[in-house]
Design goal:
- Residues 194-322 form the LTD domain.
- InterPro entries: Lamin_tail_dom, Lamin_tail_dom_sf.
- This is C-terminal domain of CHU protein family protein.
- By secondary structure, the protein is mostly beta strands.
- The protein has 3 domains: 20-189, Galactose-binding domain-like (Jelly Rolls), CATH 2.60.120.260; 197-354, Lamin Tail domain (Immunoglobulin-like), CATH 2.60.40; 380-478, Sandwich (Immunoglobulin-like), CATH 2.60.40.
- Helices cover 4% and strands 42% of the residues.
- It is built from 2 helices and 35 strands.
- It has helices at 4-19, 274-278; strands spanning 23-28, 36-38, 47-49, 57-59, 71-75, 81-85, 91-94, 98-99, 106-115, 124-132, 137-139, 145-147, 152-160, 164-173, 179-189, 206-212, 222-227, 233-234, 238-243, 249-254, 261-262, 267-271, 289-291, 302-309, 314-321, 337-339, 352-354, 380-384, 387-388, 399-404, 411-418, 423-432, 436-441, 454-463, 469-478.
- Strands 1, 2, 3, 5, 6, 9, 13 and 15 form an 8-stranded antiparallel sheet that branches. Strands 4, 7, 8, 10, 11, 12 and 14 form a 7-stranded antiparallel sheet that branches. Strands 23-22-17-16-26-27 form a 6-stranded mixed sheet, with no helix packed on it.
- The protein is elongated, with a radius of gyration of 31 Å.
- Residues 1-20 have low confidence and may be disordered.
Length: 483
C-alpha cells in the first residue's frame, strides 16, 4: 500500500511528464510587453526599450519607423509575442548563447505567423537560423524561411549536438496592415541531461544551518544552507519543502531552474527577496544569497524545513519551535535559529539556539555567530587598544572589546564605569553572546555626550541557562591629542 507521499510524488511526476515533453533547456514566450523599438507621430523620433535584464538582443538599425504605429517589439497579445509592423526593413532578433553540452540530441522550435493581405516575399518574412559553437549560422531545416501569405508555421530543427547554441531570427513587414509574429521559442532535448555525479548532493553533503521563520515587518523568511562537501553541487537538482500535520511533504520548491553551482565550504541563504533580508542583516558575501519564486510557508511558532535532492531523498531536516530560542529572550521577532554543531543532528532541538552577531540578530550568508564547530576551550576577554582616542581622526577612535567563550548560550551584560566606580553606559542588557565576537565602545556616555579623558572600567557579566556565570573586568584609557 502506497503512503500519501508516494501517491503525491507519482501524481507530480506524471503531471510533469504529460505537460512537459522532453527536457526544456531554454525558452522565450515574450510575456513582457513593450520591449523593442517603435516610431513617433512626428515621423522622426524613434523610441526604444531594451532593459538590461532581457537575455536576448534586438537590432532594428535597418528599419524605418515613420509613425507611432510602426514597431518591432513585444506585445501582450495572446499572452505575449514578438511582432513587426510596417518596420520597412529587416530586424534581427538574437538569443543568448545557450549551453547544450549536457545533452546528446537538441531540438529547437518556434512559431512564425503573419496577418494581413500583403504577399511580397521580399518585404514580409520570418527567417530563422541557428549557430553552433561559434560556427556559421544555418537555416532551420523545417520552415526556416516563411514569406508572403504563409499564415502560420512551426519552424524547427532537430538532433543538434555541441557545447552551445544561439538562435537568430530575421523578420520584416513593410505594410501598415501586415504583421509578422514570432512566438514560443523553445530549445529542448528528448534525452535526459547528462549530469556529473560529483555535482549531485547526497546525504551528508549539505546541511540546514540557519532558519528565520519570524521576520520583522517588511522582512522575509530565509533558510541558510552549508555545503560541507568537497563538491560543487547543482542547485537545480535541489529542493526545499515543509510538512503538513501528517508529516507528509508539501510545498516542494526547486532552488533554481538554472545549473548554478553551490561551491564547497560555503553558505547560501535562500529567500523570496534577498533585498528584504539585507534591509535588516548585513553581509560580506552578496553572492551567498539565492532568490526563489516562492518559499515553503514557515509558521512563526513551529514548523519543518526539509532539504531534498531530485530523487526526493531527504538530505537534511529540522523541526523548529519557539521554545528552541534562548529561554531568557523576551521577543523572538527577527531572531533566527542557528545550528550550533555540524556534527550533531539538525533534528536535535538542543543543537539550535537564538542567533546573534554583534547588533544583528541573524547571520545569513556566512558562518553562524553561535557555531561551535571550532569550539573554544577557555573564555578570554581582551580590550584593544588599551588607550583609545575617540576624536574621529581615523586612528584608534574606537575601543574593541573582543571575547571568546567556552560554550554557546550565554547572555551578556556589558557596562562602563568611570575611575570613581560610577556607571556611565550600559552597552548590553541580557543580549545573546556568540561563541566569539567583538563589541565596540565609541567613548560616549549613555546620554550621548563624550566622556572626558581618563581611566575607565569595562565590566562584562555572563549568565548561562545551566546556572553558570562569569565576570570579567578590564581597564582602558580614554585619551586625546595634546596641542
Amino acid at each position: 500500500m502506497w503512503g500519501l507521499n508516494s501517491v503525491f510524488l507519482f501524481l507530480l511526476l506524471n503531471f510533469l511528464t504529460i505537460n512537459n515533453p522532453g527536457t526544456t533547456i531554454w525558452e522565450e514566450e515574450f510575456n513582457t510587453p513593450g520591449i523593442g523599438f517603435w516610431g513617433d507621430s512626428d515621423g522622426i523620433t524613434i523610441h526604444s526599450h531594451l532593459p538590461p535584464t532581457t537575455e536576448w538582443q534586438l537590432d532594428a538599425e535597418a528599419c524605418s519607423f515613420t509613425s507611432e504605429k510602426d514597431y518591432v517589439k513585444t506585445v501582450g497579445t495572446s499572452g505575449g509575442r514578438l511582432e513587426a509592423l510596417d518596420c520597412d526593413g529587416e530586424a534581427v532578433w538574437q538569443s543568448p548563447w545557450i549551453s547544450i553540452a549536457s545533452y546528446t540530441a537538441v531540438n529547437c522550435e518556434l512559431i512564425a505567423k503573419e496577418t494581413g493581405s500583403g504577399n511580397n516575399p521580399e518585404r514580409k518574412y520570418v527567417e530563422a537560423f541557428y549557430q553552433l559553437d561559434q560556427g556559421e549560422k544555418k537555416l532551420f531545416e523545417n520552415n526556416g524561411l516563411s514569406q508572403g501569405n504563409w499564415g502560420e508555421s512551426v519552424v524547427s530543427q532537430s538532433q543538434l549536438q555541441g557545447d552551445s547554441i544561439r538562435l537568430i531570427i530575421h523578420l520584416n513587414s513593410s505594410y501598415a496592415s501586415d504583421k509578422v509574429i514570432v512566438d514560443a521559442i523553445r530549445v529542448w532535448s528528448d534525452e535526459p541531461e547528462k549530469v556529473d555525479p560529483n555535482q549531485l548532493a547526497e546525504t551528508g553533503d549539505l546541511l540546514i544551518n540557519e532558519v528565520l521563520s519570524n521576520p520583522f515587518d517588511e522582512g522575509v523568511d530565509f533558510v541558510e544552507l552549508y555545503n560541507q562537501s568537497s563538491k560543487e553541487i547543482r542547485l537545480d537538482h535541489l529542493f526545499i519543502a515543509n510538512r503538513d500535520d501528517q508529516q507528509n511533504l508539501k510545498t516542494i520548491v526547486q532552488l533554481s531552474s538554472e545549473p548554478i553551482l553551490f561551491p564547497p565550504n560555503t553558505y547560501l541563504a535562500v529567500s523570496e527577496n534577498q533585498e528584504q533580508v539585507l534591509n535588516f542583516y548585513s553581509t560580506t558575501c552578496v553572492s551567498c544569497f539565492l532568490d526563489v519564486t516562492k518559499m515553503p510557508a514557515l509558521n512563526n511558532s513551529s514548523g519543518e524545513v526539509v532539504l531534498l535532492n531530485d530523487s526526493m531523498q531527504v538530505l537534511d531536516e529540522m523541526h523548529y519551535t519557539e521554545k528552541m530560542h534562548h529561554p531568557l529572550l523576551i521577543e523572538e521577532e527577527g531572531i533566527s535559529l542557528e545550528r550550533i554543531s555540524f556534527e550533531e543532528s539538525a533534528l536535535e532541538p538542543s543543537n539550535w539556539t537564538s542567533g546573534k552577531n554583534g547588533h544583528q540578530l541573524a547571520s545569513p550568508g556566512f558562518e553562524n555567530a553561535m557555531s561551535a564547530n571550532s569550539p573554544v576551550k577557555t573564555t578570554t576577554f581582551q580590550l584593544e587598544p588599551k588607550a583609545f582616542s575617540p576624536n574621529e581622526d581615523g586612528y584608534n577612535d574606537l575601543l574593541q572589546i573582543n571575547y571568546q567563550l567556552d560554550k554557546v548560550g550565554y547572555l551578556a551584560n556589558l557596562r562602563i564605569f568611570d575611575s570613581n566606580g560610577l556607571p556611565i553606559n550600559h552597552l548590553l542588557r541580557n543580549e545573546p553572546a556568540a561563541i566569539q565576537g567583538q563589541w565596540i565602545w565609541d567613548g560616549k556616555q549613555a546620554n550621548g555626550s563624550r566622556s572626558p579623558i581618563g581611566l575607565y572600567i569595562v565590566l562584562l557579566e555572563l549568565h548561562h541557562p545551566d546556572g553558570s556565570a562569569k565576570q570579567f573586568k578590564k581597564v582602558c584609557t580614554l585619551t586625546d591629542r595634546i596641542y
